[in-house]
Amino acid sequence: MPTEIDREEVQRLLGQGARLVEVLPAAEYREEHLPGAVSIPLKELDRAAVAQLERERPVIVYCHDYQ
Amino acid sequence: MSPRAAWRLESMGFTRVYDYVAGKADWGAAGLPLEGTVGTRAGDLARTDVPTCRLDGRLVDVRARAWRAGWDTCLVVNEERVVLGQVGRRALNSEGGESRTVEEVMRPGPSTVRPSRSAESLAERMERNSLTSVVVTRSDGRLVGVVRREDVAPRGAGSGPPLR
């Protein structure tokens, strides 16, 4: 079950090497995204898209807010 | 959207999946950096030298300090720099006040914007509402600074009075 986290926990996990994934459409990612985040829009989230992510590292997903 | 993405990642075998549910709105509102094509933001423009005062400050002292610094406003903050109110030009210019406190004259709960707001969007809001200045706070209410209209508007396009 995915774990909901807050900003402080995001920062802590990033310090441990977590990957950040923005799942909004690519145009929104281009406008603004968290530093270091990669763009994998929800509509494109498949096995090919996640091949760039290492399974042993924590993965943090986010969108704009509580959508 | 992110909860569905998190579950989908788990369905593909990822075991350490976290959902930052508050997302980039929360990140930017906290004054943390964002990357991308959006240019200048409110946090970049905010004048951080705006005078601040406490609730129990004396109006005469606040007035003198604000004027000395070239400002016509003073933001009322607590010990955590959370914005509680604003002493605007009218209150600063009011007669007397030898014994009046900031709490007696301040306007509570001034409208604020987050540091991540784009300069373009901020300019539209200020134009639409005829605002000469806007207070910028982080999502926890802490003061970042003040953006004046001339900071976001083209020079000479409805800029505010010369005082900051």
What is the N-to-C succession of helices and strands of chain A?
EHEHEE
Helix content of chain B: 25-40%
Sheet/helix structural class of chain A: alpha/beta
Strand arrangement, major sheet of chain A: 3-2-4
- Quaternary form: heterodimer
Walkthrough of the structure:
The complex is a heterodimer of chains A (67) and B (164). Chain A has 67 residues and is of the alpha/beta class. Helix content of chain A is 22%, strand content 19%. Chain A contains 2 helices and 4 strands, in the order βαβαββ. The two termini of chain A are 18 Å apart. Chain B has 164 residues and is of the alpha/beta class. Chain B has helices at 2-11, 23-29, 42-45, 59-68, 89-93, 102-105, 119-128, 149-152, and strands at residues 17-20, 52-53, 74-77, 83-87, 107-108, 112-113, 133-137, 143-148. The longest helix of chain B has 10 residues, at 2-11. The radius of gyration of chain B is 20 Å and the shape is elongated. Chain B starts with a helix and ends in a 12-residue tail after the last helix. The model of chain B is unreliable at 155-163 (pLDDT under 50).
Question: What's this entry about, in short?
Answer:
With 67 residues, chain A is α/β, with parallel strands linked by helices.
Give structural attributes.
heterodimer, A: 67 residues, alpha/beta, three-stranded parallel sheet, 19% strand, globular, B: 164 residues, 8 helices, 33% helix, elongated, disordered C terminus
